[in-house]
Design brief:
With 332 residues, the protein is of the alpha/beta class. The chain is built from 13 helices and 8 strands.
Length: 332
Amino acid sequence: MSDLMIGKMRGLQATSSTKGVFTILAQDHRGSLRRLINPSAPESVSGEQLTKWKRRIVGVLGTYASAVLLDPEYGAAQCIASGDLPGHVGLLVSLEETGYTGDPLARESRLVEGWSVAKAKRMGASACKLLIHYHPDAGNEAQQRALIEEVAEACRRYDIPLFLEPVSFSIRPGVSKDSDEFARERRRVVVETARRLSGLGVDVLKAEFPVDPLREQDERIWREACEELTGASAVPWALLSAAVPFDLFERMVTVACEAGASGFIAGRAIWIDALRVPESDVDRVLGEAADRLKRLSALADEKGTPWYERHPLGQAIANQVQVGWHAAYGEI
């Protein structure tokens, strides 16, 4: 097979703005969305209810995003078939099962049963996304790394971009991720994670903010940490929102993009309020969420680093396309 990754390049173009920046709406939530819909009994929320909310949110907000991230179970095909996902908007489809298995101090990610990179490519996805529970010092670090390499190889074979989302966790008994103790090591964990994982065939890192913004308010420290993350990552990175309040996330996006990030991939920080109001107010609140997304997109386009300035494809592929390339380009 030819090494010409023209499909990856097209996928990165399709998921980014005209400025080459990722302004992506995340709507692949499953367990967390169930908890938002019915906090007292999330297990009672049906798949149909999840799909209804996903379609509603994507139908209003999708057109303002460079791409939308959806899950294969309740969102991707449904939003395509209904027309709620606009045809001009890129599509990322997640690969992982919601939640994790194994020891809470050595969390294991699982792929969705019956789903694959090949199926995502076949359905027309622009890119795949893998969430991986990861701590560089966890006992199962090698196992999680092997899963990334397996998925990255499949994405290489099918010539489709891979967005990797490492989610950190505490490996200390009795210490939670939202504790002061974990906050003190968060920067090291996030930066070291980027250093170890971004070179494994990943195309974009969907990264956590490298400091706890609720505990550390000094934007100079934010900027230093984000610059360190940029230096550690071998590929472009985009900031995830982790459900922080919108005003805070807007500040985080500003600093991250000024420090080298290539945009954002955000969900709850943008649309969570729509699930906190009476039905009669949902349309109005989704309109406000659309305004939020437009503000963030303009901000990221202005300050973000285009992905092609950070990705090897953006620097090298133009010179690789020669007459006759199609004959050497391998079949699946």
